[in-house]
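Here comes a specimen:
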Amino acid sequence: MSSSTHHSPPSLDLTFGLEIQFDLAVLPASFTDPHHGHGRLVYEPIRHPGAVGFQHPETDKWHADEDHELFDDWSSVWAQNARTHIAECLHEYGYNTHVPGYDEEGTKYHEPKLIEKFQHQAWTIADKEFHQSGFRHGYFLLPMEIQSPPMPFNEGSLLNVRRVLQVVSERYMILCNTDAAIHVHIGNSGNPFPLRTLVNFALLAWTFERPLLQIHPPRFQNYQRNGSTFPPMINIASLVSRWAALKGHRTPIYGLETIAACKNIDELVFLVKNGHDDRRLTYNLLGLSDELRPETSEGDDPFKRTVEFRQHKSHFDPLEVTDWISVCAAFMRKAHSLSTESTFKHCRSLLNGPPDFCSLQYTLMFLGCDEEQVSYYITHRYPTDARPMATLYDRPVAYGPIDTAEVYHYPAWSPRALSGGRENRPKLPPRNEDARRRDRPGPTYPEEDYGVRENYGVRDN
């Protein structure tokens, strides 16, 4: 077992980072918005920055000729314009922003290190291909990810997170689908965590992983084999769990003993990484290891030394997101406050005891969550006893009238469309010439702007 001491360790100076994946719903100006009067921006984001009227028609090129070019030909242009639009929106509210990408000559923009983003508190609007994009539910969906800078863990930073989420979710049409997630990184202001703190964290994660999964939808509870899209659990997929299975250990106590015996950080990270493939686990420690940290062209960056929590659903609820960030921070603070010996004994007693000993309520109280947080999570916890419940509880979260239950003609992604077939490509009748010359295309085009013809691309009533 790693050495433990009862001396009070230096306090942590916690920082956090947030990554939230989502789909931005947009339309080129030649498409009718199937929902009128919602006031959200669906046309403007993909237009060329600074464009007046139809000064830059390339963003509307989908219907510029009879070939009806595939969405794939223009998705990168639309996505770059949309990321710039969101960045400028946040800049209006006083936030520094960064948009990765390339200039008109194909030169890649400078990508600042995390330490630079921390110094300037710059939010990143990134392209995130966590799934295939295309024409869905009446809109073109562009997968994106908003990344906060490393931020000091305090109420002021949490207030900024809530404000950014509110601004974006109120201005744009957003779909947080079931394959999107929120990732939270907890660091120590660029300083390494002590070995004892990380060993204690791994012991607590090993013990409390399953009760904490009740905070998250069933799709993250993959010990029920709900699919391989989501991060595997350390209790199931880590090297520790696989070695225990190979040696015939049927209780989780062997995992505790193996984790507690780690002598250095690289050994610990190796034991709790995925033992089957390259997917990162629900608790990802790879950024802490000099040997196992993924190599980047940016070189070493101290703010990459974080513990990553990868098991939260994507949504823009300001208070719920910041509450989850607080739970992640409490996890690290609790791990830092204990000795390894006492942590090991406590976790062993919980795993040897009845299931009620390791309930969600006890877990949250042990980590130091306040009564309001405990009450909220107990009230809104997800079922963990049956896979059929996944369909009921695993639903997308939409901001705006976009509805995943609505079916529209001509999906952009289909074998026929991708191979060059034309009948599966989304199309609408062209708008008349006067309407196309209007300066500000928006979500409330009058129906008389369109010629009367077959209703391609619009939901059947």
User: Anything to note?
Assistant: The radius of gyration is 24 Å.
